[in-house]
Design a protein that fits this description.
The protein is an alpha/beta fold. The chain has one domain: Response regulator (Rossmann fold). Helices cover 49% and strands 19% of the residues. The protein has a five-stranded parallel sheet with strand order 2-1-3-4-5, with helices on both faces. Helix 2 packs parallel to helix 3. The longest helix is centred in the last third of the chain and has 18 residues. It is globular and about 30 Å long. The two termini are 16 Å apart.
């Protein structure tokens, strides 16, 4: 399986890559902003995308909208410090399947990754 980690923080990309590997997703690409994420998502096939909200160049929420506008159905999990309920609702409306608030316990993110992929497979 293949995942895409999108975060402007190198340290957070490492943490999220580790979480994907613990969820048996061993092939992982990285992007440092939403624009890079859109470009990678349009030319590659992913089983899941972990997307930060606040990044330079293009916000994660805008990247989610662009990925969805392309017709992609890849599961997207927002991984962000944005804790307001309205942000969660905005992310789901934009096309994210799940939402994790930073900081998080490793078991929480791994569980969300596995659950999101399993739900997506059940709908495919």
């Amino acid at each position: 399986m293949r995942g895409l980690v999108v975060d402007d923080s190198t340290v957070m990309r490492r943490v999220l890559t580790g979480a994907l590997r613990m969820a048996d997703i061993l092939e992982v690409d990285e992007a440092a902003n939403g624009q890079e994420a859109v470009e990678l998502a349009l030319k590659n096939t992913y089983d899941v995308i972990l997307m930060d909200w606040n990044m330079p160049v293009m916000l994660g929420i805008d990247a989610v909208r662009e990925i969805r506008a392309s017709g992609s159905k890849v599961p997207i999990i927002m991984v962000t410090t944005e804790a307001e309920k309205s942000r969660f609702i905005d992310a789901i409306k934009a096309g994210a399947q799940n939402y994790v608030i930073k900081p998080f316990e490793p078991k929480v993110i791994i569980s969300k990754i596995v659950d999101t992929i399993e739900k997506h497979r059940g709908q495919a």
